[in-house]
Amino acid sequence: MAWIVEKLQRKKGDCWSTTIEALETLERRTFPKSECMDVRAELSKSSTMCWVVRPAQTIPKGHEGPSVLGTIIIQVARGGRYRIHKLSVAERWRGQGMGGVLIDHFLSWMREQGEDRECDLFVDTARQPAISLYTKYQFTRVRHISNYYGTDRDAWYMQLLL
């Protein structure tokens, strides 16, 4: 299946509600309950950006799958600083390069902003595929944080300077 990546624009209506519901479903299926965020509240903030991956074609009625296959949610800070708050891909679509496509779109946008830019993130030390993906995009491990996600669940703080 072919897919498209688009920067989500804040708007109202059925399409917006359907997209938010799909993002909430993806969030619940990807992360433990203790790490799930309120997607609607997060995306209502002016300091949050989001790119989504959608199927490139309309799926015939009765054969619908998720309307959002993956997403990257970015928190924007002052001075050219960004944080990857969430990167998630529906389980069926993992390992097919979709996470990399989302990072590519975000980093391209980030470079277009000019000047020096910085992006950081926190990632569970047990999520080796995620760590490998971020390392592929030149994020470096800056600091190990014990119990970041709870007892015996550590994180890497990773950073990319452009």
Automatic annotation (TrEMBL):
Pfam families: Acetyltransf_1 (PF00583). The keyword Lyase does not apply. GO terms for molecular function: acyltransferase activity, transferring groups other than amino-acyl groups. CDD domains: NAT_SF. Keywords: Acyltransferase, Transferase. Residues 18-162 form the N-acetyltransferase domain. InterPro entries: Acyl_CoA_acyltransferase (IPR016181), GNAT_dom (IPR000182). PROSITE patterns: GNAT. Transmembrane segments: none annotated. PANTHER family: ACYL-COA N-ACYLTRANSFERASES (NAT) SUPERFAMILY PROTEIN (PTHR47542). This is Acyl-CoA N-acyltransferase. It comes from Piptocephalis cylindrospora. The lineage of its organism: Eukaryota, Fungi, Fungi incertae sedis, Zoopagomycota, Zoopagomycotina.
